[in-house]
Specification:
alpha+beta; three-stranded mixed sheet; elongated; binds dinuclear copper ion
Length: about 325
């Protein structure tokens, strides 16, 4: 039987292609969380460019494959051929086979070359330019809190503050008794794992002031979803003032540290006012009025509660126990 050959109706193919382009449009427009957030740091910019570059190939391949699929379905449909008769049998097309082998190899090579060219600007921490130094912040992930430590000893939880335009180097880890977390502020850089016993480094250099949201990106336990993080980027002088003020307040045992620790570490399990949630009710109990007992629980854990504050300094311990006594003592 001779092969049945008739051109597909062009409008059908074109219509299908247009429809698929329209359907994927929302993804390209950036709404609905499909497209990445606008990059606000040079390394995030490199990641964004790689994303766009690879997406162009993906989209073109999608159109090609779906277009051919639809075209072939139409062109080689059964028509009046008897139901059990085979269609045309075609063997060997050397040039076509070479093309579909070499084409993908070439595409993968181009993508790899582009990404490897971008990688240094994504990964390498820029060295400090004259007159400025990189700000180093130690980032520790614990169930279910992000803890930040600045060079002058100031500590903060869940919200990091940083000066605009200056390179901030992040030394990311998790305590030995904890699990793996992943630090990720999409606008400022890619993910970096917080692994017990290991120090991973990443960085950002925020282009503008503002608050950039992020989220622990490694499933780390029941409140993984509550392990949010944000970076508040502020003018350099404002940041310096804030950092110095924090130092004085934390040394003196005044200021908002206790409340910050409560919200970041205790309230996620015990409820916003200690009324009980996943963890038991602690508001109004005898425990919260006894700083030494609280410290025991925080340093050693209790039942399913992890030792959230095993390595907290005495100042931090005082801040949280004082907060508990004054605000939840009943
Ligand atoms: Cu920490 Cu998920």
């Amino acid at each position: 039987m001779p092969p049945i050959v008739r051109s597909p109706r062009p409008f059908v193919v074109v219509g299908a292609l247009v429809a698929s382009a329209v359907l994927t449009q929302p993804a390209l427009a950036g709404n609905g969380g499909f497209a990445p957030v606008p990059p606000e740091s040079p390394n995030a910019n490199g990641i964004h460019q790689s994303y766009v570059f690879i997406s162009i190939f993906c989209f073109a391949i999608f159109l090609l494959v779906e277009g051919l699929l639809i075209g072939f379905v139409i062109r080689y449909r059964r028509r009046k051929r008897p139901r059990h008769a085979d269609g045309a049998q075609i063997h060997g097309a050397t040039r076509l086979e070479l093309a579909w082998t070499l084409g993908p190899v070439l595409i993968l090579f181009v993508i790899a070359a582009f990404v490897f060219a971008k990688l240094p600007s994504i990964q390498n921490v820029p060295s400090a330019s004259a007159g400025t130094s990189n700000l180093v912040v130690d980032v520790t992930g614990t169930q279910f809190t992000w803890q930040f430590r600045y060079p002058n000893g100031v500590v903060a939880f869940d919200t990091m503050r940083a000066p605009v335009g200056r390179t901030v180097e992040l030394h990311v880890t998790a305590p030995d008794w904890d699990v793996i977390h992943s630090w990720w502020i999409p606008a400022l850089a890619g993910k970096i794992d917080a692994i017990p016993g290991r120090l991973n480094k990443t960085w950002f250099q925020a282009k503008r002031t503002g608050v950039f949201q992020g989220q622990c990106a490694e499933l780390c336990g029941i409140f993984h979803a509550k392990m949010l993080a944000s970076v508040e980027v502020m003018p350099a002088d404002e940041f310096d003032t804030w950092l110095e003020q924090q130092r004085q307040q934390q040394d003196a045992g005044t200021g908002p540290l206790g409340e910050e620790m409560w919200n970041a570490t205790c309230a996620k399990c015990h409820g916003p006012t200690g009324e009980g949630d996943y963890g038991p009710k602690i508001a109004g109990t005898a425990l919260v009025t006894d700083p030494e007992a609280v410290e025991q629980v925080i340093r050693n854990g209790f039942g399913t509660m992890p030792p959230v504050g095993r390595d907290w300094t005495d100042d931090e311990m005082t801040a949280i126990t004082t907060y508990l006594k004054e605000n939840l003592g009943g």
